[in-house]
Amino acid sequence: MMKNLSIYLFILIAGFLFASCDIIEGPYLEDNNFIDTTKDEGIQKNVLILEYTGHTCKSCPKAHRTIEQLEELYSDRVISVAFHTGYFARTFSGDKFTTDFRTDQGSEMETYFKFAVFPVGVVGNLEKSKQASYSSWPSEVSAVIEDVALVDLFTVSEYNNTSGEIEIKVGLHNKSTLEGNVSLAVYLLESGIISWQKDESQDPIDVEDYEHNHVFRTSAGSVWGESLSQSDCSANANIQVIKQIQMDPAWVPENCSIVAFLYETVSRDVIQCSSEILIK
Amino acid sequence: MFFSRKSSSIPNRFIGSDNSSFMNRILIIVLILIIPAGLFAQITQGRLSGNFQLDAQSYRADSTIGAVAVPENFLTNSYANFRYDAGDFSAGVRYEGYLNTLQGIDPGNDGVGFPHIFAQYRHDDLDITVGSFYEQFGSGILLRTWEDKNLGIDNSLKGFRVKYTPIDGIQLTGLIGQQRIFFDMGPGLVRALDGNIVINDVVPLLRDKATRVSLGGSFVSNYQPDDDPIYILPENVGGWASRLHISRGGFSMESEYAHKINDPSADNGFIYKPGHALLINTSYAGDGLGIALSAKRVDNMSFRSCRNQNLSKLMINYLPPISKNHTYSLMNFYPYASQSRGEMGLQGEISYRLKRGTALGGKYGTQLSFNFSLVNDIDHQMVNDSTPIWTSGTDGYTSEFFRFSDQPFYRDYNFEVERKLTKNWKFSAIVQHLQYNQMILEGKGGMVNAEIAVLDITWKIKPKHALRLETQGLWTKEDKGNWAMVLAEYSVSPHWFFSVLDHYNYGNPDDTKRQHYLIGSFGFVKDANRIQLSYGKQKEGILCVGGVCRNVPAMNGFTISISSSF
């Protein structure tokens, strides 16, 4: 009797588990009309994605497309930086993959993060243990984008097209005290670079006229930024920090942008970030 | 705290590290409660067993082979198992330390802790396990949790498992748990059931028949919350499998078919097509002859307990390889890894032992074997005229079940002769032809066509003293070009062995990369203790076990390996 009972119980549990399958009939995309994409820079919290990529990484365009989807979804409240680094960013002789997107700062990042796989990135944090696959970035962005912004952060840049020098005035207005040790990092990015990229969704896989966007070119000082003083972090402080970046003649100023972000150096949480097109 | 690590590596929304520790405390309380008083008497008369392993490697930069130094100078992986058995009761823990993780293994492991702890109680027809455990249903195409330290894989489940045998010939298994990832647990909740019936044991009339038949069925479901703002994702992803095993004398046939509902993930680029897998293995053995034939079809069958993970992390199922796992290094230079997105293949092997004392077999007999593997992509068709194949947020593609794609993934034809010539001499010789789709399998290059030859000779010089000489050659016009390899190994049993090994990439198209990779090693073995020290250069390569692979970077430095068991 007990043995028959156990079999019936087994069948019952199996039936219960079968019933717990979520078959999605379609449409498969979320209805995102309710998301308010109105930008109110410096008041709402923006989300920073540091992406690590390479032009011979055939899966990396999936990450690029995910960022495009997020930019479309959240307007410019999602700010991404693409570091081309490591094995997949190597250049080759011949006519393909000759563009060298690599930077010393990207190598420094790679030494810290010890990437096991590409594409990979961090969302709203610079901690190596937080590196995650591109497919989890949408979830991670949606988890923090509604957070309250602690600081209003913006940049005003002036480009001298004779000397190639960029002066960046970074403005901070703290709505409350910024706890911990806070660093400010400022990057120069370039978009619209047409060059080779492997893309497994294309046939042939080697795409000649791929558009590379948000490419990290250089930083003002260390890629990890510089610390702010304690007084700079106090509530209601209005701070202006001036940074300089030297343009390389090979970079197209019209396609460049300045990204600035603040992060706490122990938790490595990004507190706020901003992006500004260099030449409006 | 049972766990200590420098940092948490996985954003864990479902249950965090603190909860892991909490779970361990609960486990201990449960253990105390479930152990009947009488069992304490048995426990005091139990047996403790275990083992220990440490691998350490120093890293020196060597631009000639692409080896890089590490800031720590040397890295170590270590572990120790402790198991206590007393009557119907067993319990165990495993310590693991990655200080820091050896190159080639995911650095997410960095840290130390006791990630594996379990207690098991078996009495009559009941078998209960709480804590960490490994489980496999059938061939594993729907569920297999396993570990391999060389690959850096451990996807064990932590939770509860019950096995019950209501009558002879029927075994039922139910489990629930979360999978291990590094020193943490994944976000998914895995629930699974399996039943296996041995027909001959259940039906008395068939009990003594030579033909043995067994049937099995499994169901596995994973729960992971949907917090994605772009896609509507299934939170409960289920799959089922059925299997059949028939044997009679030397003949055996095993088959298993699995189906999984829509499971958009990073592996399939977030398409909603259901997954399928079919595996058939047949074999015959008798009178010196062995024949084996396998067929496999996989269609979108990656199954993980976290839809965002990659490589070998949090895999619920296992896709067995349909290629021979070679042991000689150059034969394993281009290994095949199972393709969860889709593959269709055949593998066959015929082996025959020429009898001893015959003209062909010689004085001691000769073993001949021929093996082949053929793997292609599956057929892919667009779901409609306007949607490219593999488009995210769609059904992805359609595929005819019995149609191969014209995209070859892998071809392997190899023939081996193994013969003992005299009392003191024996050899084996292998020739192999290989086609390897490097773009699909490694994401670079194109199709590699290679011929490989191996000659392995062992000379027993005198009692306890043996010399083994291994020579290999790989010839290809693609990738890194031609390779040669020589190994000389001298062993003084049962304690000592010494070896010198050189891989030489003499045919590299780039002259500066025509390098020797020379390694010298010696080791000492005593009872259950073994220590080995090596120094030299190791070439970059791919290490595969059971169709699962990892990249091994080029290295230059010392390696020390210590193992012991008790």
What tags apply to this protein structure?
heterodimer, A: 280 residues, alpha+beta, five-stranded antiparallel β-sheet, three-stranded mixed β-sheet, 13 strands, 33% strand, B: 566 residues, mainly beta, 24-stranded antiparallel beta barrel, two-stranded antiparallel ribbon, 4 helices, disordered N terminus
Description:
The complex is a heterodimer of chains A (280) and B (566). With 280 residues, chain A is α+β, with helices and mostly antiparallel strands. Chain A has a single domain (2-29, 44-277), classed as Sandwich (Immunoglobulin-like), CATH 2.60.40. Chain A contains four helices and 13 strands. Chain A has helices spanning 2-19, 60-74, 104-113, 137-144, and strands at residues 47-53, 78-84, 120-123, 151-159, 165-174, 182-190, 193-198, 206-212, 215-219, 226-227, 238-246, 256-264, 270-277. In chain A, strand 7 and strand 8 form a beta hairpin. With 566 residues, chain B is mainly beta. Chain B has helices spanning 17-34, 37-43, 199-202, 438-442, and strands spanning 3-4, 47-58, 74-86, 89-98, 111-123, 126-133, 136-137, 143-144, 147-148, 153-154, 157-164, 170-181, 184-185, 189-198, 211-223, 236-248, 251-260, 275-286, 289-299, 342-354, 366-378, 404-420, 425-437, 447-462, 465-476, 483-492, 496-504, 516-526, 529-538, 541-545, 548-552, 555-565. In chain B, strand 11 and strand 12 (170-181) form a beta hairpin. The longest helix of chain B is centred in the N-terminal third of the chain and has 18 residues, at 17-34. The interface between A and B is large, with 54 and 55 residues.
